């Protein structure tokens, strides 16, 4: 196992110490229990937005804490759900009296622990709602999930709800907006290689030099099928077709197209995937009104990619363009001048 | 070789087509010859900032084209210098009458081709200056270089000069500022694994499961030495000590600390490196006033990291904080409120 780590058992704690060292001017990091919150939390009258899940998907979720996105993130150990205590403490830290919204990826452990934390919070007098993310069209049920897995849409959900919460949306309206985003987004991923969980010390599965896994999850869970290695264009078709068919997306839809790297895939390859995905979208009559290309929800150093499509509305475009200032996601749409203008 | 590509020979072209598909609202992409320019180029009265080099280091340089950073980037084939024709065409496209500044990493081919392009531009009546980047303390001379290699400081140079150019700095003052940044920055990198150039089809070198290369370049060039795999903390010491000694950095210096991933290294590991690097800086009496953590100058899917330190001034801090809007680098330092404020 080749990793830039010290003790395998200390990876999450030491990374959190690094986040505090790097971003302590804007974020606060708690080490007992683990969570990351905005430096200005709690904000009176603002709904606190909390997400979390196993570590190993960075920059999600800790990298998305800041103005215009999450109020807090609860990182579990690598690929391990955060505990109810963590979620409770983080939620308390960001509750400014307007309640707390949990964004929960659909994995059995995450769902259970967020639900337990929500009960504890309600007992404590805090209003809590949650939005589930289950956008992965690859498989129904899997190693860690009843129902579909939550993958790439989580990142978009955090950005969009973060903007709405910053604008003063109520807990009830955020819940409703989250459900509409959940209904409008679909994803699918694939892997060229496995990743190695530090405490396991060896790859979570093996793929031959001429094989890939289509429909992979973000923890190395099996996908739909193992297949012979294909070209970037063929792979893009394999991911886009099930996504398009599922919602279904229809000619005339305005969409956000998100091409995500799994951690070990170079950006230059993601643009080759984007090229084909945009071509397929155009052939289907879809209009790509916004996009995102990069490694935003990862699976340690796994090589591969995922594609997420989200049907957009005027409201969602406005929320997408809203300013955000977090360690891993900043948005600053500056106006640009006309060619030749001074 | 497992990559998300179609034909190895088409990687750069298809990635550029992907960049155009994704960012065509803000950038223009030329395919004959290859270059990427701001959509609003040329800007009358603004010095055009042009960089370039072999592809495979993404997001550098194409991801840094946009307001507040580069006016144009010239990507060569993977790890191959751009041609004088490319550099000439890109420079012409961004020349708004105030001249063009080339930011050149110190590799023999890059230096030669940028110099040839500069001569062609001068013959054509365009004022041209260049700033060389040669910040790598690992080795004097190497496989592709006479003198030190240009690595991580290039990214910081592009951000800082980009902000100054946006502010209306003259060609002469940008050249002077670039030289001062060059004099104040130092870097060193290491690798856990090699990368594979698509057209070569096999890794550029081999490292045993218990080995690493200390002082690696960004093209898999040999470093200072091959060593037994060490912990993240030990590796950080191995990189920081030569950097600190070289300038030298001294107690009381205000610095920018940049921890960069080589492409295949997860962000969670970079924060473990940052944690130790910040600790060492503090022990030396250095004050980290700004930082950057992520994969900004890569070597395809190589696993490893580099550290760059830049001695900061009030002027550089102001330029660092200036807004920027490019595909891979956006800056939007939003003010955050006081805890509990509405």
Could you outline the blueprint of secondary structure elements for this entry?
The structure is a homodimer of 342-residue chains.
Chain A (H helix, E strand, L loop, with lengths): L10 H13 L3 E5 L2 E5 L9 E8 L16 E7 L5 H11 L5 E6 L2 H16 L4 E6 L19 H14 L4 H14 E7 L19 E4 L10 E4 L3 H15 L7 E8 L5 H17 L3 E8 L9 E8 L2 H8 L2 E2 L4 E2 L11
Helix pairs in contact in A: 2-3, 4-5, 6-7
Folded structure, characterized:
The structure is a homodimer of 342-residue chains. Chain A has helices spanning 11-23, 84-94, 108-123, 153-166, 171-184, 232-246, 267-283, 314-321; strands at 27-31, 34-38, 48-55, 72-78, 100-105, 128-133, 185-191, 211-214, 225-228, 254-261, 287-294, 304-311, 324-325, 330-331. Chain A has 342 residues and is an alpha/beta fold. Chain A has two domains: 12-184, Rossmann fold; 185-322, Dihydroxyacetone kinase, domain 2 (Hypothetical Protein Tm841, Chain: A,domain 3, 2-Layer Sandwich). Chain A has a six-stranded mixed beta sheet with strand order 1-2-4-3-5-6, with helices on both faces. The first copy, chain A, is globular and about 50 Å long. Mean pLDDT of chain A is 95; it is low at 336-342. Chains A and B meet through helix 1, helix 6, helix 7, strand 11 and strand 13 of A and helix 1, helix 6, helix 7, strand 11 and strand 13 of B.
Low-confidence stretches of chain A: 336-342
Oligomer: homodimer
Q: Rounded to an integer, what's the Rg of chain A over CA atoms?
A: 19 Å
State the helicity of chain A in percent bands. 25-40%
Strand-and-helix sequence of chain A, N→C? HEEEEHEHEHHEEEHEHEEHEE
